TrEMBL record:
Name of this protein: dTDP-glucose 4,6-dehydratase
Organism placement in taxonomy: Bacteria, Pseudomonadati, Pseudomonadota, Alphaproteobacteria, Hyphomicrobiales
Cross-referenced PROSITE patterns: TAT (PS51318)
SUPFAM superfamilies xref list: Calcium-dependent phosphotriesterase (SSF63829)
Superkingdom classification of source: Bacteria
Length: 631
């Protein structure tokens, strides 16, 4: 979600750019050569080196822009796969902006597509031509969806009940079957896997918080069932092929007086009532915590969904902790246990990982069904000298004891933030995606920005006060084992415009178009090269985009802009097909921003039809010659 904070950039002591420069000149000296030959020696290839310096990428960079359309390099093509309002389920109406209702929206593609995941069809297939695509629908820009509701974020607070019902049905997620013919992708009509999940879909609660007193409501006296998920930002998958979808800013949806909530410790730590962004509490009691004080405790979780079984009841896996979850990406530890990396995307919040108690079973999918219910949740402390320590959040291990307000593991996971406070975890600059790289075994932590960090609050891993542009931290787990409780870290890039914003760190050959701001979702191609999507480019006067860089060799940390998004939108969900020949992106909230409304949006992307609003959409990018993306 775009963050509207303000501030100016500060400075930093850490100098990865200088380190890279030294490393480069060492290699130059070693080979007695600059450019082509040195790059070829490190795997760059002579032809590529001529085009893009030390980078292994050969595409022509897209310039920094900020306009109503999208941009890709000339050799590439964009296809619109599916837009908000397109039919998903049988009987769905075609999108008609004049005829939206909760009932029509419930069968159509939701709003603000964010995370994208690909699950091969049939299960285990490696042809790469048919997938189940899972999509999160994070939130709604009601001022752009609904006619006559006015401008701004506060438009949502003006929603009447039928409009609130549209919003609720536009949240959650979609499962789509997609197929490739040549370079063209289509959504398969009438697929038996097609599914919509929204703010009212019945779900099960599992793990340590299930059945706890803090999870009980008048509609669910057992504390084991809940309706819906919302503000699902990024996500991930499991090795057994389920979808993990992450509830982020859930507190925006609940109204009430936070100062009167019966659990003041919990209410304060999770900001209940501080920012109410939706009118749902006016029409539905469960969204008013004055009436249902425990309902907010049932949100802010990782939700597991099996995309191969449309009848499967989604499960909230409470062992993984409750906070403003961005994503949940796994690695397999040396002994086969599954390690899920997670970030709490708020200013001064923490980085977490969860390690399952048991190894996963690759030969029996059903045996992994409840694997995420048992294990250890850890929070990260980033020390001076490049050491990271993972601190276990275990009830009855000091300080998480009854004297400190933790009567059980349920208390620990429901108030994971306070557990992290007591363990003195490192407050970060808004942790977004945290993703392990399967090629080099390292973990990349995207930190979006934090303009409110004061000079006296900087720490080694967050070295800039008023960090408007964010940075990326690279972690190397000890002995390459993701279950290890220690590792090392360094700052991979510090974003912003070199020469204009203070404290930026990139490869020195980064071009005037290659710098970025506010890293959010990241992914890797099959070579393990890093792709970085951004959220909030307008803070630096540029459109959001997608940037590519090497993580090893001469081109390490040399970011290059591959895609620029239409005005007001954020780039989410970057995902490659296993052959690297298609890149899917979720273009979220086109036209968001001051003064932009349904009637007069700042862009009408992607349809550009008079009178029609912009529509969040999933796009497929291919290379015109059919080659791998970025080649
Ligand atoms: Fe929804 Fe953290 O971005
Ligand atoms: Ca974001
Ligand atoms: Ca995000």
């Amino acid at each position: 979600m775009v963050d509207e904070d303000e501030g100016v950039s500060g400075s930093t002591e850490i100098s990865i750019g200088e380190l890279i420069e030294r490393r480069l000149s060492r290699r130059g000296a070693l080979f007695g050569l600059a450019g082509t030959a040195a790059a070829a020696a490190f795997g760059g290839g002579a032809a590529q080196a001529q085009k893009s310096g030390p980078s292994s990428f050969a595409f022509t960079e897209v310039p920094h822009v900020n306009d109503p359309i999208h941009h890709v390099p000339d050799a590439y093509e964009v296809q619109i796969l599916i837009r908000w309002g397109d039919p998903v389920l049988p009987g769905a109406a075609a999108y008609d902006p004049a005829k939206q209702s909760g009932a029509t929206q419930a069968l159509q593609f939701g709003y603000n597509n964010d995370f994208l995941g690909l699950h091969p069809l049939p299960t285990g297939s490696t042809t790469g031509d048919r997938f189940l695509m899972v999509v999160n629908h994070e939130y709604t820009n009601s001022n752009l969806m609904l006619a006559g509701i006015g401008e701004g974020r506060e438009a949502r607070l003006r929603a009447d009940q039928p409009q609130a019902e549209i919003e609720m049905a536009a949240h959650g997620g979609s499962v789509l079957e997609i197929a490739r013919e040549g370079r063209r992708w289509k959504v398969v009509d009438g697929s038996r896997y097609a599914r919509r999940i929204d703010a009212n879909t019945p779900m099960r609660i599992a793990g340590p918080a299930a059945g706890d007193a803090k999870m009980k409501t008048s509609a669910d006296p057992a504390g084991t069932r809940v309706l819906g998920m919302f503000n699902n930002c990024a996500g991930g998958e499991t090795p057994w092929g389920t979808w993990l979808t992450c509830e982020e800013n859930f507190y925006f949806y609940f109204s009430g007086d936070g100062t009167k909530h019966p659990d003041q410790v919990l209410a304060k730590r999770y900001g209940l009532g501080r920012t109410v962004a939706y009118a749902w509490g006016k029409y539905f009691d469960r969204f008013n915590f004055d009436k249902e004080p425990n309902e907010p405790n049932r949100f802010g979780w990782i939700v597991e969904i099996d995309p191969y079984d449309p009848q499967w009841t989604p499960v909230k896996r409470t062992a993984l902790g409750r906070f403003a979850h961005e994503g949940c990406h796994y690695a397999v530890a040396k002994d086969g246990r599954v390690v899920c990396y997670m970030g709490d995307d708020s200013r001064m919040e923490y980085v977490y990982k969860f390690v399952t108690a048991k190894a996963w079973n690759p030969s029996d999918r059903a045996a992994n069904r409840d694997l995420l219910d048992e294990g250890t949740l850890y929070v990260a402390r980033f020390d001076e000298g490049g050491k990271v320590v993972w601190l276990p959040l275990i009830h009855d291990q000091a300080p998480l004891t009854a004297e400190n307000g933790f009567a059980s593991q349920a208390d620990v996971v429901i108030n994971a933030r306070r557990a992290g406070d007591l363990l003195k975890a490192t407050p970060m600059d808004r942790p977004e995606d945290i993703e392990p790289n399967r090629v080099n075994g390292r973990v990349y932590v995207a930190l979006s920005n934090n303009s409110t960090r004061k000079p006296e609050e900087v720490n080694p891993a967050n070295p800039r006060a008023k960090n408007e542009h964010g940075h990326i931290v690279e972690i190397a787990p000890k002995d390459g084992d993701h279950a290890a409780t220690e590792g090392t870290w360094e700052i991979f890039i510090a974003a912003g415009q070199p020469g204009t914003h203070e404290g930026t760190k990139y490869h020195p050959a980064t071009s005037a178009d290659g710098w970025l701001t506010c890293p959010d979702n990241v992914t890797f191609d099959s070579k393990g090269r890093l792709w970085i999507a951004t959220d909030s480019g307008e803070i630096a006067g540029i459109a959001d985009g997608l940037y590519a860089c090497d993580v090893a060799g001469e081109g390490r940390a040399l970011t290059r802009q591959f895609f620029a998004a239409p005005k007001g939108s954020e780039v989410c969900g970057p995902t490659f097909t296993p052959d690297d020949r298609t890149l899917f992106l979720a273009i979220q909230h086109p036209g968001e921003g001051q003064g932009s409304t349904f009637e007069t949006p700042s862009t009408r992307w992607p349809d550009f039809k008079d009178g029609a609003p912009p529509r969040p959409a999933v796009i497929a990018i291919t290379k015109k010659d059919g080659g791998p993306i970025g080649s």
